[in-house]
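Problem 12. The chain below contains 313 residues. Write out its predicted structure in token notation.
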Amino acid sequence: MRVVLAQPRGFCAGVERAIDIVERAIEKYGPPIYVRHEIVHNRHVVERLRAKGAHFVDDLDEIPPGSVTIFSAHGVSSAVEQAAAERTLPVIDATCPLVSKVHSEGQRYAAQGREIILIGHAGHPEIEGTMGRIDGKVHLISAAAEVADLKVGNPAKLAFITQTTLSVDDTRAVIDALRERFPTIVGPDTKDICYATQNRQRAARELALAVDVVLVVGAANSSNSNRLRELAAEQGVPAYLIADADALDPRWVEGVESVGITAGASAPAELVQQLIDRLRELAEVELCTLPGITENVRFRMPPELADAADSPA
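Solution.
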């Protein structure tokens, strides 16, 4: 069996930074450290950090007074930030810098008196945080078909921003529909789209064209992991999203010559290695990696945890 790895795959810089923040906070302040929501969408990561002394909570009321508190990579609303301040919780913000950039763009457009069209998925933690960061009217849409039903105050004063786990390709049809209906709408340059999302989706497409079946390692509640599976399936090959090697159904790869593996941005590398080891139990494996982009992005640590070894992206 030929096993082909996508490049890039797995952790992005924002996820690496968020996990590093929790680990450094535990090391510096000692356990327990409290994290609002899952730091990233991956059960294995969460359980590993929990074993080290991280406590994951859904509400700030669950955090004892004075406890070090971390906001997840997805970002939080201004109301959550204010509630933490009112309780005088010492907060470390692990929001991905690219998510923070979307917050800033939305705030800037709102300050210009524009209504905001936010392209993303309802209920996603990033969307909840972004909508809660913008003072003004925000319309949430996820598909081009929704543009026709938008009711806005002033069609000449609109702007759009996007969820970071959507790629240029994911948002292109929606943005085109917005510009067709509202010719004066403004929005960020496509270079502001999350580099990791775009790179992983492009690699997943190329992988699907080179193999008989694609396995995507990632959590069921990971938006970017689900999209990788969808994109692979769109190329006409069977594609499966699995949390780890234990979730592999041997029938999926029975008799196939080539299996492609990629991983969502919150899936650790050891899960990919464990899946390869599982495939080796089923057949002799010839392993190779597709040519692709090598990512060397790093983001600064928060000042509370920074040290001399850190270097900014």
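Discussion. Residues 167 and 197 are 6 Å apart (CA to CA). Students who got a different answer should revisit the alignment rule from Section 12.3.
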